[in-house]
Amino acid sequence: MSELAIEREIDRTKMSVSDEVAIQITGMNKWYGQFHVLRDINLTVNRGERIVIAGPSGSGKSTMIRCLNALEEHQEGQIIVDGTELTSDLKNIDKIRSEVGMCFQHFNLFPHLTILENCTLAPIWVRKTAKKEAEELAMHFLEKVKIPEQAHKYPGMLSGGQQQRVAIARSLCMKPRIMLFDEPTSALDPEMIKEVLDTMIELAEEGMTMLCVTHEMGFARQVANRVIFMADGQIVEQNEPEEFFNNPQSERTQQFLSQILGH
Amino acid sequence: MSTLTDPPKDSFRLSMLINDTRYRSLTFQALAFLAMALSFWYLGNNLVANLRAAGLNINFGFLGDTAGYDISQKLVEYSNQDSHSSAAFVGLLNTLLVAFLACITATVFGVVAGVLRLSKNWLVSKLMAFYVEIFRNIPVLIWIIIIFTIMTAFMPAPRAFRGDNATATMVFDAFAFTNRGIYTPLPWFSRGIFESQTLNWVLVLLVACGSWFAARRVNVWATAKQEETGERPNTLSMLLGIWLVPFVILMLIMGLSWEYPALKGFNFQGGIKVGGPLIALWFALSIYTGAFIAENVRAGIQAVSKGQTEAAAALGLRPSKVMNLVVLPQALRIIIPPLISQYLNITKNSSLAIVVGYADITATLGGITLNQTGRAIECVLLLMAFYLTASLLISLVMNVYNASVKLKER
Ligand SMILES: Nc1ncnc2c1ncn2[C@@H]1O[C@H](COP(=O)(O)OP(=O)(O)OP(=O)(O)O)[C@@H](O)[C@H]1O
Ligand SMILES: [Mg+2]
To answer: ipTM of this model?
Structure first.
């Protein structure tokens, strides 16, 4: 949970935020049985925004971003992703899932497929891309995450950091316009955290809209243009990183920051 | 050159046989082998000595003698004037028949029940749980008896089909469900290409093999097309054509006819008789073992972590694709080894045939033949050899299949 230094200069030229709305959540509520996990969530994300979501364990961060690609159902309120409203309509869900990529804490690579096959599976079966084309695309993104030489290995033969980068490449192969990350680095050793964060920074530099649940405050400070703090299923506070870290408004946020930054 | 990199060679000491990891396992394997060889030698010697003392000798000559008993359910020609070895062969085929049928239906029951037990539908999943718990917790012998009793007690006797005020009627004038078994029409060829019906059926089988190869070619072609263009061509009509057209043409040429069972005297004649004992044994083995297979299937599917399904769904794959491309390939690896055991169990449990009078190999060779000739040791040795061979063959086939689906790297 330390503040990890990102040494390299970050290219901010493409990291501009447009006025176009990418995600709009209004009045969303979600229950697990009797348990009210998400309370009245309102959030607008513009195209090109890089948002970091922080908060104590169990505050509903994962649940919120999993609602955005219908891995979880919300019971109340409206979610519009890229102009498509998330309803229980399968067509809408398909459309949104093909535009939203997601990376998980535990990578979730398919162990029975090679790295290359992991990356070509969805383009071939969902996008109906020709195999050769899909493989070229996969190699392109594997080069981008700097592991083209692992293409014919199986996930079990790779290190954690490499696996997470494959997972990112696998999502990118679907050419998503929005990427969701759920604690992509919390299962990794410090050395590997850096390589994954570097990959994510590169994505940000290309103008990808990103929502990222993470405890990497260094990443939040330097890459995010907004930090959202959640507690008990609510968005308690949101602000630009500088303001958020230096001048937290609510008591919950101050308490959380003092714990996480170890002061 | 190599002297520099070679590790220093320590001289071999006897204690290294126990203490050195390089030799340790070899030592123990050699000791175990020695102990086993000694005990087999002792037991074999003991057997031979005791047999000699009792004035018995091992001799398989009795197999050539006339058996003298009838077998009602048989796959090959047999009469009571044939030898004991013919009777044993009829029994052997009967064992293989019921084991084969039960393996197929048990797998179908098991897969359906195992998948449905994971259904989100409360009623369906509870029904499947009920099926599994009821059937696997009551001994299969009891199920065989229950099903046989139900059949013989509640199904109409053949004579109920007779007369103007018959209490039972044939289904479609072709199928008769009686307390002695089920009678169905027998297909045969009136203008067969060969004199012998068997050869004609072999021809049908060959044509089916041809269709199978053609269907595989179509699949290969479809995959290639998909790899090239991305769109998988719809091969359903093509596959239907490949399977149906040659078959239908062959049937027309050879004049496929049906021999219907008909009531003659006290019983049905003609057609195929699937005897009550076979049905009871087949059905009992299927539902009993199916319950175990259902649990294996459920465990296999559940062992594939939720994260796999979620990752695949997040990539936009529809549930059926998630199942076929991600979950099943991983689940099969877990399902197949216990499935082998279940197939072996079916084969061995089929020896319970004797309680309903189904003439399997245990009932013929290990039952009537043994009692008539008194050749207990020979009969039991033959039975052991048969079950061992059958089981090892099943294991072999399934292990080859298992090797082809198992995960390459972990
Ligand atoms: N399937 C579920 N059924 C019932 N309750 C659940 C379920 N999934 C999550 N919860 C509960 O919802 C709350 C929010 O969970 P969530 O995983 O979103 O938290 P989080 O903020 O991501 O926490 P962490 O930082 O530990 O990942 C937790 O209290 C959790 O126990
Ligand atoms: Mg979480």
So the answer is: 0.91
CATH number of the domain where residue B270 is located: 1.10.3720.10
In chain A, the residue whose alpha carbon lies closest to the alpha carbon of B307 is: A108
Phi, psi of A88, deg, nearest 5: -80, 5
Average pLDDT over residues B134-160: 90
CA A62 to ligand 1 center in whole angstroms: 7
**Would the CB atoms of A122 and B318 count as touching at under 8 Å?**
no
Q: Does residue A7 have a pLDDT over 70?
A: no
Mean pLDDT for B185-208 is: 87
Residues B410, A124: C-beta atoms closer than 8 Å: no
| Cross-chain CB nearest to A157 (options B307, B321, B409) | B409
List chain A residues with CB under 8 Å of B223. Answer: none
Measured distance CA(A94)–CA(B315) in Å, rounded:
9
Number of structural domains in chain B: 1
CA-closest candidate to residue A228, choices A213, A247, A250? A213
Coil/strand/helix, residue A219: helix
Q: Which atom of ligand 1 is nearest to the CA of A64?
A: 18
Domain range for B315: 84-184+262-402
pTM over cut 0.80: no
Q: What is the mean pLDDT of residues A209-232?
A: 92
